[in-house]
Amino acid sequence: MKIMDFCKVLILLSVFWVSAGFAQPSKVLIVNSDNAVFRYGTIASEFKKVLQQNAYQWTEFNLNSHADAEAELKQLIQQENPVLIYCIGTKAYSLARNVASNKKLLFSAAINWRRLDIGEGTYGVANELSSAQEISLLRYFFPTIKTIGLLYNDKFSREYVETIKKDASALGINIINQPINDAQEIGDALNELLPKIDMFWIISDPVVLSSKASVQQIFQAAQQRKKPVYAYSDVFIEQGAVLAISADLATIGRQSASLALMVDKDKVPEGTVQNPAGSTVTLNKCALDALRLNFNQDALDSVNKIVECDK
Amino acid sequence: MIKYLYTLLVGALVLNSSAFADASAPNDDLEKELAYLAAERQVVVTASKMEEHVDKTVATTTVITQDDIQHIGARNLLDVLRLVPGIGITQTQIGIREIEVRGVKTLLSEKVQIMLNGHPLDHNLQNAGSAWVYDDLPVDTIKRVEVVRGPGSALYGANAFLAVINIITQNAKDLNGLHTSAGWGSFDTQQYRASWGKQFKNSAEAALHFNFTDTNGINSPIPADSLSVQGLNSAAPGKSQLTEGRYDLEWQLGYQDFKLDGRYINKKAGAFFGTAAVLSDSRTRQDYNDYFCV
Questions:
Q1: ipTM attached to this prediction
Q2: Per the CB < 8 Å rule, is A118 touching B50?
């Protein structure tokens, strides 16, 4: 009997030893839509830093440097067998979803993630901040604003605009949204929209913001009608936006990496999509003074950057 | 003098170029942002399938992973559930284990919806509950347990009144080969597991799990029962019959979007302390079969 017990312990130990010997560091495949794009590049760089700190291995695949990206990506996935594919941008996610639907996918930097084809084992960090949080801050800064207008393209931003409308309605703000099919329609749409609103909201819609000329057209029209502009990114402060609440790119990269580590350990429910954790609030005091727009002075505590007029 | 003019010229050039750099910085940022938007504009996708998931991911969800299970040394499902805030495990006088949620429990835990890989499990024997069958489910093949506390009937069906417990077992992708484990303990306790899984190139996949567990139990002393107190013939004083054992065979077969999952359970249990409060050495044996086709 004692020999039997000894044999059992010996088998148990050998199974344990063999399984421990086979343990390998987890590997992540990073698929980048275009590493020359600043936003994608910054996020990828921060993501890799966190992976390195946690002794993860990774392989990068940049779609812009492969002629037959689909076939090559398919081959790479078979060859590397990663625990997770991190997709930066909509193009990367769409391709990875097509060629590796049975793999765990994590996305970020995809505009309006709600429009994506999300399957089982997909996780993400949204590109846009929580609209409820943005509208709450807007109300805090400008308590008198009741109606906000925005332009959008139905193909790219419909779901996001619906979320904005729902959140705004809960907070007592009316959203007037005007769809456009291409940048040529911006002028007419603004002429119709601006007289009805207290503030114009620039969302990250790639059709509305298709060129510098479109951006200038929006700001010129808003200035003529003396309407303040709120923007999703502080790059529009220089153009004349009064307030910008921007998601921090480096934080999106680090947040995605934390999520990837949790996904690898099965610590998060399938389908989890987080809002960006870091944000910067920029107030353009110069534009506010020019518009003689009243704002809540107490809200200045929430501001990270104040832009004054050049003297 | 020439040297002085040269220095002045270089200084002016440096000043000039830094002024240009300042002026161009904001434009650069805008250009970078427009370049990003242009890259995003290349892909148009229209399929929204996510909102249901978000609704399910409520704050009262707890996820226990394989890693957690290994660290706590859990041997069966109830050992895992004991860890979940708001969930308690109790045992009745006749040995039935109950899942208590936020202080509320029923004898057969039929108000708790147990799901296997997302499929609801209903066993008529216990008024559409499944705790009786799955309470001692071995955990070696479990990948994750998700517990949603609170009423979830709108999402998960009729029995999800107190909580939903979704047991997710390892699939072909998780296994990717053969896995075995064995364990022994006091009271002649034994536990064995063998799993195999493979994904094939033609998008077919197969996973097979076998679990075996058996124990004699702790044999609690029972000094008297309802017969012995009346001076009638009785097995008391004696020891409770806490012997337990089961074997499970689970399979998951998939080809493209078609899936066929099944589980066969053979379970035996000692009488503990009978329903008529009588000590008995009888032992029951039950067979359960669950099949799912998706």
A1: 0.89
A2: yes
